[in-house]
Design a protein that fits this description.
alpha+beta; two-stranded antiparallel ribbon
């Protein structure tokens, strides 16, 4: 008995074909679903994932470079340590907000298959909330 790819309920006997971006190319895969609503959600996920996944790793690498380079560069130019205390927590909070708004594209297909699309998206959004809380608490305690 298969599980629904979106909500992970047992008894998903219908299948839908999708083209999902994985490792630099589009691959065709059949996913099980339990209801028409889950099928719509799977197709909406596929469209969003295919739009954001190719760009996400470049974006994340660029964000990481900015997170490390800008504060170090500003501190070395001005000699003011405030940049090291303010910019990284602020950028961490902004990255958390981006994960809440656009949770798709950050993980590979294996995680969606294991947890289901719905719960993986929730997990990523909760991680974004924790990133915002961490950045805010670092700024608050400074």
């Amino acid at each position: 008995m298969s599980r629904c790819a979106y909500c992970r309920k047992k008894g998903a006997d219908r299948k839908t074909a999708i083209r999902l971006y994985d490792n630099g190319k589009l691959t065709t895969k059949e996913l099980s679903y339990c209801s028409p609503k889950c099928k719509e959600q799977i197709h909406a996920f596929t469209e969003s994932h295919n739009r954001f996944a190719p760009k996400f790793m470049v974006f994340a690498f660029g964000w990481l470079v900015l997170l490390m380079v800008i504060p170090l560069l500003l501190k070395s130019i001005t000699g003011n340590p405030v940049y090291m205390e303010v910019i990284p927590p602020t950028m961490l909070a902004i990255m958390g907000a981006i994960l809440i708004k656009y949770p798709l594209g950050i993980v590979t297909k294996k995680y969606y298959e294991r947890l289901g699309i719905k719960y993986t998206t929730w997990f990523i959004r909760i991680t974004g909330i924790l990133m915002i809380a961490t950045g805010a608490s670092i700024l608050w305690l400074r």
